Amino acid sequence: MVERAPHGTRAQLIMAGATQTLTLPRFAATRPATEESRAVQWLLIAIVLLFFAAFLLLPLAMVFVEAFRKGMRVYFETLRDPDTVAAIWLTLKTAAIAVPLNTTFGLAAAWAIARFQFPGKRLLTNLIDLPLWISPVIGGLIYVLLFGSQGWFGDWLIGHDIKIIFAQPGIVLATIFVTFPFVARGLIPLMQSQGQLEEEAALTLGASGWQVFRRVTLPKIKWGLIYGVILCNARAMGEFGAVSVVSGHVRGRTNTMPLHIEILYNDYAISAAFAVASVLSLLALMTLALKTITEWRAQRQFRRALH
Amino acid sequence: MRRHILPGFGITLGFALFYLSLLVLLPLSALCAKSFGGSLEHFWNAVTDERVVASYKLSFGASFVAALINGMFGLLTAWVLSRYRFPGRRIIDALVDLPFALPTAVAGIALTALYAPNGLIGEFLGKFGVQAAFTPLGVLIALVFIGFPFVVRTLQPVIASLSADVEEAAACLGSTRWQTFRRVIFPAVLPALLTGIMLAFGRAVGEYGSIVFISGNLPFKTEITPLLIVAKLEQYDYHGAAAIGFVMVLASLAILLLVNALQWWSARRTGHAHS
Fold this sequence. Notes:
The complex is a heterodimer.
Chain A: H1 10-19, H2 25-28, H3 38-67, H4 71-80, H5 82-115, H6 121-133, H7 136-147, H8 154-159, H9 168-178, H10 182-194, H11 197-204, H12 209-238, H13 241-247, H14 257-266, H15 270-306
Chain B: H1 9-35, H2 40-48, H3 50-83, H4 89-95, H5 98-101, H6 104-115, H7 120-126, H8 136-161, H9 164-172, H10 177-206, H11 209-215, H12 225-234, H13 238-270
Helix pairs in contact in B: 1-13, 2-13, 3-8, 3-10, 6-8, 6-11, 8-10, 8-11, 9-10, 10-13, 12-13
């Protein structure tokens, strides 16, 4: 028997009072005993919506309000500015290198981890996750310590006139680090749940390893893969901390879009900063929309695997 | 152990290990080596410097409070999204991930514009004598923003998998809805809730981009630890930067271990088979 709470908090008393309506036959017909009363439901929904407004919706709306505060002309002038255009190109270029590399890694790691048993598998899975846990600033710092002028390979690089830190290769490396796990961690649970009966059947029918991957595995994991790539790309284009450490902040040369936002903002070009920010916000909203669609598809693939 | 039938084990594992070593393990070992590369005394001085200790307090303290706030609102949000039907639910559900998708620098300047003394919410708070931006409260707000999705996304599948019969049984035995929540539902979701809080905490400790704009970066007051690493680098104090970085990596590893333990507990409690 569940005993009554001896002394309730205010919230408890409100809840207890609300559930008293259960005994009224009028309400008992409309509400099962395992649901809260409509009043409580709407109260909780209201709290959640208020929290959303203050922490998520208003900041998002703020980006567009501030971006257009000085009018369309300033907005489009900012986006046409050569430094902005250079920042957009560098961001696209960085993502175009980092995302395919991490996707290849993710596929290889998922194949090895989900399809085979080997000692140290758990450790490997955790190591793949590690970059998500480490501060992005450290993601930049470690490459400075390797390739900077004071770093392990610093003298060698200077001798061969190769510049990695405070140049574009450093930005790509830092981006790869912070987006490292996204594809792999999306694929591993999916492939583990799907099993490998189809792959084994294809093999007995004489398919080569590559054919099995292309014709059997890839269609099975398609949506999970796209999901990981979308997340990886969003982070690659939006990364700030890690890239900031290795970039050197040279306008038009080593500035990605997030870094360009910082420079404009610190120059008190607030509207311009928000104009660039609005482009990245649109990218974020597109990412969310695509993510929702692929998540739904991936879940269908996942469920099909379970049945 | 089953025999390997599928091909490609050697090449995929080999490539994965090579890529991981080259891009993650080698650079991290450079961090370890560099942090102790000076003298041990220099390392100790760097990580126990007054200003650095003040930044630990802010980074870990604010992250902890933010994670707790996220635990509360995350549980509420996950519950409302899984159990109630209301207009706009799907949009709200999709928007939970906004802090994942929105670049941190964008979040930083947007939150600053909103919570600065002349901002929409900042002005409102000012009437009560509260200043949010450029104070520790600003740091807290940014950390609540970036940590929010973790608790919701960890809890949603667990709430969805709760079976209705235990709640029905509790109702039949005469418990109020609140008693059912406190004694039946809450214990079942607790491990996942703690996991989500820990994930939010882990993310918040290392956060940089969203904070540097809203915090004002005042030494001893609103300086977070990752910012001090950047400051040391700008002064070409590589050993100092590496030493503080090393401490942060150790903290991250501890959090990672704790999350692993929590997930194991969560899997046992809910009966979900995780790998």
